[in-house]
């Protein structure tokens, strides 16, 4: 039976204090200064009036008003500091400067449209322009070339470059250095020790197979640089992304293990607090002192308090205090989705999970009740924010977290110990690394399986009406779920229904229609084409820029086997979605272009294809089920370059061009070839006639229009993103194709477009939004 202490209401003054702090920061950061000041005064006056009418509320309301004013003042001060000094003015003029700066984050690969580089945070210490100079302390974002990849956190460097204005209001400017960095001084001993431990974790699992060896560093300290994109996409769909980012879960596991070891060796009382503080500080140093890490450390500390003795009351109070302190120190967190997710997940665990655990414990073992209630409560609290980011509501997140939970702690703790012991004796470190990698392999298998279910998530939308409705549903669900969970019958019926929804694909009457031969998937600004090779089988030509979009399109088409994937060239809008093709499907060979640019995309494709991506010879033919394909470009011996109008014309002209025939329908798949390559195709394929033209390069204005209109196609397909920045498709081109008698279909207006072969000959078109 619940005690009187459990039956009394929860003390929500702490969370209310945190909400007031959040409100104050949001007022300044999202509302123009004058209206924000007016709203603050009105809110304070209203609070004072209420306090006078109800004396018992006087102290509480006064505290809320003071807290809101404090965080609003902090946000205002930080905003002024970012705009103060000479740096913003220099950035507006795109000034060339000589600079000295200290690196404050690890370099992260920066994938640009046609090349790579790195980005990292830094503090600008000295700026010189001509004979003038200034000493300052200005936060900047550095965007540099690959020569900056090995710059170490905590080191001081000098460089020449340009400043430009930053979109992030927390930064004074963006610094674009020219050439390699000049070394001034390396990181201090603390940063070197932290880097050594991070390196030890990687070395401990280096002998294990991919991708589990790449997951362990992400679990221990958030180092996910080597994690394949496919695994990241599967973790996102399964609701397990928090495991690979620095989160409160990481800190709770690491510090919790440290406290258990301390208790085993006799550490008691206040020394346990000292040990916990030391563990938190060490975790922050190893995972890096970035805002996201500090946020995770704060939320993890709150969770530890909540799980401890008296956690029912101390946890919520600590949550409110943590939000207040974080927003006073770094008010920009108030507008970051990661901060909202951390706070809401912790709130769900502290405020909702206990009652759900008690309800389930009436007919389940208490350990199982807690294992189910904790991830479910955290997921419910975060659902509106997740939907605002992704437009989806996850159905498999609770199941995936429940299945992964037994493996997360061993993988994290063994990975950390393996990293420590690796610095002493490699065999011992490698042994623990083997344990960590084995648990990591299990987590990856769970993510892959759950993300591959028929309906892992529901498309919801991210508009204001949809999010408001979802928030109301989550609030009502939080209030009504507790009594429901206490009753075995309704809970089991609801759970069975949810399992059926996840396992059985939702009906899509009439889609795909009988006789479809080709689909142009709506993948945004990119290409994602599917050729029907038989029941559940297809050839995929390009995968678009987003794994989720191509995955959903293939699901709608019922494709489970992909014997061949052709990537016409390595630009992001054609290959970044490749992980979505692999999600839950059998994938055979991968054919690619011979021009390996940009190299980071080549490496990503080879990782996903397990090194088996191959370049087909000119004239290669495939017959896969009902699909016949022939490679007709690029033509050997033709220099792959183009006009200066587009810096990507070299890779574009190197696109794999194919002729396809399916059910008597002839299709030209032209990749992104531009006028020069199109003229070569015109010479090598004289008199070519097709039924369907996949218009090159998303309908760019750079076309050999006379040749395209001479192909006699009845249908022209343009794969293009809505409101794109490139002006695609060009109105003149669309008009020319229509004048030539082609039915022009485009994904930005029509959604998925299917080409259907009519039984008596001819083609039809079917669309699906």
UniProtKB/TrEMBL annotation:
Localization annotation: Cell membrane
Domain (Metallo-beta-lactamase) ranges: 525-722
Stretches that traverse the bilayer: 20-44, 56-77, 240-262, 269-287, 339-356, 368-389, 395-421, 428-448, 460-480, 492-511
SUPFAM superfamilies on file: Metallo-hydrolase/oxidoreductase
Membrane topology: Multi-pass membrane protein
UniProt feature coiled coil, ranges: none
Any Pfam family hit: Lactamase_B
Keywords recorded for this protein, A-Z: Cell membrane, Membrane, Transmembrane, Transmembrane helix
Chief site of localization: membrane
NCBIfam families: ComEC_N-term
Protein name: Membrane protein
Organism: Nocardioides phosphati
């Amino acid at each position: 039976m619940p005690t009187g202490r459990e039956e009394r209401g929860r003390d929500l003054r702490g969370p209310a204090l945190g909400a007031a702090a959040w409100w104050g920061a949001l007022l300044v950061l999202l509302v123009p200064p004058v209206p924000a000041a007016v709203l603050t005064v009105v809110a304070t006056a209203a609070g004072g009036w209420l306090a006078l009418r109800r004396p018992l509320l006087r102290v509480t309301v006064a505290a809320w008003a003071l807290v809101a004013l404090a965080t609003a003042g902090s946000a205002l001060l930080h905003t002024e500091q970012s705009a103060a000094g000479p740096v913003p003015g220099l950035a507006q003029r795109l000034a060339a400067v000589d600079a000295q700066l200290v690196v404050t984050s690890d370099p992260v690969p920066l994938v640009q449209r046609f090349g790579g580089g790195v980005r990292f945070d830094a503090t600008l210490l000295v700026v010189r322009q001509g004979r003038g100079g200034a000493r300052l302390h200005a936060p900047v974002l550095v965007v540099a070339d690959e020569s900056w990849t090995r710059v170490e956190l905590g080191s001081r460097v000098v460089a020449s470059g340009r400043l430009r204005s930053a979109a992030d209001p927390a930064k004074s400017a963006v610094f674009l250095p020219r050439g390699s960095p000049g070394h001034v001084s390396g990181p201090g001993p603390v940063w070197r020790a932290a880097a050594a431990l991070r390196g030890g974790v990687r070395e401990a699992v280096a002998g294990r197979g991919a991708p589990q060896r790449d997951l362990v560093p992400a679990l221990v300290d958030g180092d996910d640089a080597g994690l394949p994109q496919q695994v990241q996409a599967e973790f996102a769909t399964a609701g397990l992304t928090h495991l690979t980012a620095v989160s409160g879960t990481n800190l709770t596991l690491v510090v919790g293990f440290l406290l258990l070891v301390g208790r085993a060796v006799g550490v008691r009382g206040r020394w346990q607090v000292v040990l916990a503080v030391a563990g938190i500080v060490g975790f922050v140093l190893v995972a890096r002192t970035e805002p996201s890490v500090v946020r995770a450390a704060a939320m993890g500390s709150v969770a530890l308090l909540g799980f401890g003795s008296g956690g029912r009351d101390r946890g919520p109070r600590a949550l409110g205090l943590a939000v207040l302190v974080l927003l006073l120190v770094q008010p920009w967190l108030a507008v970051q989705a990661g901060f909202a997710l951390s706070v809401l997940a912790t709130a769900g665990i502290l405020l909702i999970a206990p009652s759900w655990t008690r309800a389930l414990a009436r007919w389940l073992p208490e350990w199982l009740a807690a294992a189910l209630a904790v991830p479910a409560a955290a997921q419910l609290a975060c659902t509106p924010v997740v939907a605002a980011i992704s437009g989806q509501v996850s159905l498999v997140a609770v199941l995936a977290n429940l299945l992964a939970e037994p493996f997360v702690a061993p993988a994290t703790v063994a990975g950390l110990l393996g990293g420590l012991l690796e610095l002493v004796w490699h065999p011992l470190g490698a042994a623990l690394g083997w344990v960590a990698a084995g648990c990591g392999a299990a987590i990856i298998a769970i993510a892959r399986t759950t993300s591959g279910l028929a309906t892992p998530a529901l498309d919801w939308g991210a508009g204001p009406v949809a999010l408001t409705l979802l928030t109301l549903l989550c609030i009502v669900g939080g209030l009504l779920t507790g009594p429901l969970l206490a009753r075995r019958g309704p809970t089991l019926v609801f759970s069975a229904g949810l399992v059926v929804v996840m396992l059985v694909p939702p009906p899509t009457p009439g889609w795909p229609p009988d006789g479809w031969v080709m689909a142009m998937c709506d993948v945004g600004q990119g290409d994602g084409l599917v050729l029907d090779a038989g029941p559940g089988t297809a050839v995929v030509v390009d995968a678009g820029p987003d794994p989720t979009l191509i995955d959903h399109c293939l699901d709608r088409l019922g494709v489970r086997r992909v014997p061949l994937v052709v990537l016409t060239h390595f630009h992001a809008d054609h290959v970044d979605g490749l992980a979505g093709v692999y999600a839950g499907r059998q994938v055979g060979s991968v054919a690619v272009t011979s021009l390996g640019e940009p190299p980071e995309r080549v490496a990503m494709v080879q990782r996903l294809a397990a090194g088996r991506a191959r370049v087909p010879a000119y004239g290669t033919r495939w017959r896969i089920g009902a699909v016949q394909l022939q490679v007709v470009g690029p033509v050997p011996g033709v220099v792959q370059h183009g006009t200066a109008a587009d810096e990507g014309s070299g890779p574009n002209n190197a696109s794999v061009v194919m002729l396809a025939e399916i059910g008597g329908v002839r299709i030209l798949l032209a990749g992104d070839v531009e006028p020069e390559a199109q003229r070569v195709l015109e010479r090598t394929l004289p008199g070519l006639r097709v039924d369907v033209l996949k218009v090159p390069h998303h309908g760019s204005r750079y076309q050999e229009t006379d040749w395209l209109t001479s192909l006699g196609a009845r249908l022209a397909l343009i794969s293009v993103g809505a409101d794109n920045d490139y002006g695609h498709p060009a109105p003149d081109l669309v008009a020319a194709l229509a004048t030539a008698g082609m039915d022009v279909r485009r994904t930005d207006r029509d959604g998925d477009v299917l080409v259907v072969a009519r039984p008596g000959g001819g083609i039809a078109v079917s669309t699906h939004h």
